[in-house]
Amino acid sequence: MRYLTRIWTAMAVFGAALVHLAVAAGAPLPELLAFTVIGILELAWAVATLTRGRYLLPRATPPLLLLPLALWAVVAFAGTSAEITPPLALAAASALDIGAAISVAVRARRDDAGVAAADREPSAGVVIGGLLVGALAMSAIALPALGQTPAGIAATEGPHANHTVDLNIDLDHEGH
After folding, report:
1. How far is CA 51 from CA 25, 54, 143, in A?
2. pLDDT of 119-169, one tens digit each?
3. Rounded CA gap, 19 and 132, in Å?
4. Which of 5, 27, 157, 133 is closest to 89 using CA atoms?
5. Residue by residue, what is the 3-state secondary structure of the chain?
6. CA atoms lying within 13 Å on the CB side of residue 1
7. Region 13-40: what's the mean pLDDT?
8. Nearest 5 degrees, angle CA 31-CA 12-CA 27?
């Protein structure tokens, strides 16, 4: 189970990173820089966790995962409009980050307490099932959040939103 929890935690951070990068795309310069750095760091952490099979910087990660919440609070108190910084998108990313921070903190605490868990490698079916469950859960939270960002809104309402393809094929065509 420890193996799957690590996968799910990395996927949650990956989803939060995507939301933070999408928020950055429509934000004023200071927020753009802050959310871009946060998103890139979250992506790097998620990839490193998945590829190495262990949490990267397990004691430093929980407080770092809570930094986007602090940034969101600063933005809210600065009076930035919700059109620029979408609250629903940031709430979803915050939920993903909080869940990941709790997961990493619990694992680090167990490691500090010397609680040993069987570290056997799970079967391929368990890994694939875990990836599928994690992807579905992360996408159920991250995709609607992405739709609330300026980038998501532009994709559904902008000039490229109504592309259609005419598939009227004349099947009664005689000739050739």
Report:
1. 28, 8, 24
2. 677 788 888 888 888 888 888 999 889 888 877 887 777 665 665 655 566
3. 20
4. 27
5. CHHHHHHHHHHHHHHHHHHHHHHHHCCCHHHHHHHHHHHHHHHHHHHHHHHHCCCCCCCCHHHHHCHHHHHHHHHHHHCCCCCCCCHHHHHHHHHHHHHHHHHHHHHHHHHHHCCCCCCCCCCHHHHHHHHHHHHHHHHHHHHHHHHCCHHHHHHHHCCCCCCCCCCCCCCCCCCC
6. 4
7. 91
8. 15
- In this structure, is the dihedral angle defined by the CA atoms of residues 43, 21, 105 and 141, taken in order, positive or negative? negative
Structure confidence by residue, pLDDT tens digits, 83-94: 567 888 889 999
Residue 38: other Cβ atoms inside 10 A: 23
Q: Which of 56, 55, 17 is nearest to 37 (CA)?
A: 17
pLDDT at 173 over 70: no
Confidence band (pLDDT; 50, 70, 90) for 75? confident
In this structure, which amino acid lies at residue 72?
W
Lookup: tokens for 88: 């629903």
Q: Where are the domains of the chain?
A: 2-157
Which pair of tokens denotes residue 27? 């934000």
| From 20-34, 39-53, 80-94, 100-114, the region with the lowest mean pLDDT | 80-94
